[in-house]
Amino acid sequence: MFSTSAGATGSRTTGAVIQNISDSAATVHLDYYNKTGGIVATDEKVIEPGAALGFSAGSSTLGLPLGFVGSLVVSADQPVGAVGNDTDDNTMGMFNAITKGSPISYLPAIYKGAGGWSTEIWIQATETVPTGSTATVKFMNRSGAQVGTTKTINLISFATVKVSPDDYADVTDGFAGGVVVESTYELGVIGRITNGSITEMYSGVSNGDVEAYAPAVYKGAGGWYSGIMVQNLDTVNTTVSIDFYDRQGNKTTTYTFPNAFVPNGVAAISTRNVAGLTEGWAGTAVIKSAGSSPVIAVVDVTNPGAGLGSMYNAALASDAATVAYVPSQYLWAGGWTSGIIVMNVSGTAADITLEYYDRTTGLMTVDVDKLGVNQYIAAAQNTKTVAGLLTGGATTWAGSAVVRSTQPVVVVVNVTGEAAPSVGKASFYSAFPKP
Hints:
Helix content: under 10%
CATH superfamily of the largest domain: TM1070-like
CATH class of the largest domain: Mainly Beta
Distance between the termini: 14 Å
């Protein structure tokens, strides 16, 4: 089951790109729900192995009315992975679909006006729930204390509800922290963060690990900077450090958070404030919890000068795999280009192959080999440098990719608007490891 938390509202339109991550053709069915839990539109397509198709809530064939706000549930007869996108005239955010709901979700990056940032939290019941079902939301500040009362929200089967710290007077202006969303039923949760022309989205997480990996981290490289927001999922205190590695795999520096993380506690660090990183640095990061306490992290990648920004979920150690799926890749289609960033998290050099699949035919178009990627190095490949994607006189290409490695890797993906009509938009999401 895949759930996403917004439809087409005003100038905002939500899309989903769904990739078949099995070895057999998949029949994929989509149900669009309104906020009262009614199915208002459906769609169904066959997707070939490795290939992906895009679906838009704004499609005229669906018939959703302008201003529709709702949710989407995707079911398939084969395993699939999907990313959602939320786009308007000036911004675009992407997020990983929730492949399985959970009674608890954590979001470590939530704001109410701090630094000009605002947050929407979209919560969807991913199973049938009885009338009167509820979920609770607790706001946690970066000192580890709960802010305001615990909020109770009503749930409707497969429908979505928006919660924001802006809705509550007892969540103080300037709040920066995280939330814990809980229910006796399974939920999917998405965070959407905005600041002027920047939209950043990420998925709520239900479990953590003692290590998490960030393949794309920057301090001024090309004007980009990163922040890393960490949350402790344990019932006891823990300490957290971050090892930063350059693009040659050398450890540049280690940052240790000065205070312990209390249960559900949240803290953040910007690369601007990591003294051991020089201006112009680019590389990777490994977030480590002391002892056995599980943590999670999200990473933002922001270019303040260009008014661009994005956010992605750091991969957990348990997410590492030798095969990963990338649903959304473009070469000038809609003005978009795409990059794949692969981080080797093993202790042995990895041979990595990227396979690109055409969206129209579902057949592999081209593969690209990258050899000798050492531990904690991130190898990047942009569609602009992949020969063979444009064939037969084509000027644009849209498709998907499969990453194959001889060692466990984690993968993040960027999608950037470099030509009309998408100039000035950019986003990240995480690839799906082979189940």
